[in-house]
Please model this.
Amino acid sequence: MSEAARPESSPLQGSVHVVSHTHWDREWYLPYQTFRVRLVNVVDQVLELLESDSGYRHFMLDGQAVALEDYLEIRPEAAGRVRRRVEEGRLSIGPWSVLPDQFLVSGEATVRNLLLGHASCAPLGGVSRAGYMPDTFGHIAQLPQLLRRAGLDSFIYWRGHGDECVALGSEWIWEAPDGSRVLAVNQVGGYCNASALGYEEIWEILVGRQPDLERAARQFLERLERVAAASHGRVWLLNNGCDHHPPQPELPAILERVRQLAPGLRVQHSTLEAFLEELRSQGAQLPGWRGELRAGRQAHLLSGVLSARLYLKQENERCQRLLAEELEPLEALLHAGGGRGLPDGLLREAWRLLLRNHPHDSICGCSTDEVHTEMESRFAQLRQLGEEGLRQLMGQATALFAPQAAGDLATCLTAWNPLPFPRRDAVRRWVILLPEDRPVEELELVDEAGRPLPFRVLERHWLERFWGIDYRSCVDWREQDCLLRTYLERFGSRIVREAGAPGLTDQFVLLEFQPELPALALRHFHLRPRIQAAPEPPLRDAVAAALISAEGAWLENAALKVWLKPDGRFDLQHKASGRRWNGLGLLEDQEDAGDEYDYSPAAEPELHSSAGRRGLLYLDEDTGLGATLRCEFSWPLPAGLTPDRRRRSAERIDCPVVLRLRLRADCPLLDLEVEVDNRVRDHRLRFVTPSGLVDSAWYTHGQFELRRRPLTLPDGADWVQPPQGTAPVQEFSLLEAEDGLGLALFNLGLPEVEARVEADGTASLVQTLLRGVEWLSRDDFSSRRRQNAGPTLFTPGAQCPGRRRARLALLPYTGGWQAARVREWSRRWRVEPLLRQGVDAGRMPEAGPLLEQDLPQVVEIAALRRQPARGSLIVRLCNLAEHPVRETLRCGQPLRAAWRCSLLEEREAPLATAGMDLQLELGPAEILTVELELASN
Model:
């Protein structure tokens, strides 16, 4: 080595903790099992190195237990070796199950992530106490509270900073909206800031080449200088490892050479916990900050993942709802009533499958087509478990068959209300009447007390006994309807019969009725022979509809009136305020020259809107409990980008569009469904809702919070990635004026929205419905400063071709979002009653209510489940308001005891109970987990 290239002594003085690790993307540019083969090799090397070299002190398995689970499934004989190294403090595992994208999964999913991560690590010697999240694409504002309530008081990360980082430096105090605080440490330069020491290029470590010791020492000191420049003290962290990297066995020798060159440094091959302990011992007064980390000043944020492969986000929302809001509450209800419940392992497996789809390269939609095809399979498996679990549980209350043959048993419909407040909603259900049953005209529908309920027959078919599925046990009427219509369309000529036809001919009847359902309860309704030959009580005509072919169509109920136009736009009048919103529902389509990570306009942008399309209008139905209008038009859109990607193609391809508007009786919501047959490429489709409000506040519902967002963006001229106007959203977003007039937009699994300020100063909500690209990563567009975020791989599945459906709803309101009960209406819209058909076999007592809450408009119940170890009831709540509230949980049984618990469901303090009630004080934005022991426990 020449004298000029030899490292000079370093003037740095302080303490350096070097943590060896591998960042393990379970699936990304290669599928899971391919990476798994590499994982086994890496963990084998780690264990062998720790066992053979006492100088190699420690290795961290990326803060996520899933890597170790995947390894031990292949090498179960290594469990003892792993446990010994963990107990010695030389191998760190957990605390997470997976490293998720925090904005694309529910807050409750993040809680279960911590719970399952701790549960996986406990038998293997213990869990890391460092809040490590190295590569997540931004961080939610409530993360400090979640960490603290799980017993973690630190946060080590890379991405997400805006201009606040200048004052904060690399160590600071992060505060959640409720005031919870953690010590935050930024991995300056990323989680690979001391990776592949001694190599000219980072990838060389993967092929077994020997590092240059002098180069390694020089690289170490150069990278440390950058870390030290951002620090408030003299205790620093460097990370020796990177994506899928094996351990670097030469590290002890490299560190010894560094000590020789920098005698003022105390260099340790260390752990995150040891680093944090020494950092705190400095006693430095660190700056603080409150808010989410979702900006790109120092590192790419990759905000386009909010809308990449939206079909995955929609399926994820459905699966989260199935587990946390339908299955687990029902299981807890039946268990509290002495029922069988479900095996703990089944529920654990369902959550395990869900979490396997939550890593940031998975749910973000920024992997190869093969990876995302496997994700669809995992979602399907989860649905199979969860939906069969629902059928089994509801089967405890509704028998499909009588225990013995008996004549004229009444058909029973069992309804499950999964919400913690009562409701009265119109429900639909295909009911199958067997040949021995009476015609539906001779039946009446009654509740348990024998009170008649008006119902209406919407459709009827006589079908030969040719079931491909037991429609009676299907609990989701939309799934039931889809299955039956597929048979009618594809097999109708074979099975459709006339009334009274000989043979086994069943009567399929689509009923609609409006039951009263208590909170978290099962209720039975019976179709029985009419006792009196009286006409069926009429349904109140709460929705009036008319079709005007030349000018459009309109719907009206007590709260709203809506006019639909031939181009799919509509006007909406809110009767309580007298306000009329015009031109809602415009579709905008623009090119997308980006990749799976980021949207980008082309050099010569081109926007197409649906305004002026000449579609056809239809009145699909008007049942008295609801009415639906439909608009259909064909929309010629550019086929894709030109080969040079500078503009959209001159070729046009028709993309059929269907818009459905539905009003329901006694409901202030307008239901919307947009269906597009996506036949073109390289574009983004959005739904525009002009609010007409000036100086309005913009809020988005997120993970355990309702976040107010700015309507203007920072300049970001010197950021690594410029700011984008889009933002994450969970259930709804809203714009609200100072006088409380507002417009809320609900969505199902569409997590990207923008509040756009128009030329006249008013704001519009712009919801992304579809984004189509065909590259995992590119480096030739403007929104990411022309840098790659991953390998340049062709991913045509990310174009999302074919029919794509989006469900939305609009809620105009006055008095502010709390008084208007926006959060409560969102849950009513998302979580529908579930029904199952059976027979009245004399063994079907009603169940519940399990629990009812007083303040659904501000207090969110994120979880309600049986505690698996103790059989008690776990309830997780969050106050969405910026002021304290007193919530009352009213149980269906007397309370024996109640406890305040940690997020990991460890009992912390007893709570006072009063009979069947528990009163709780929740501070602003507080997340609270309570455990209830009911009389039946």
About this structure: The chain has five domains: 3-299, 306-395, 411-538+834-839, 544-830, 850-937. Confidence is low (pLDDT under 50) at residues 1-6, 536-542, 544-551.
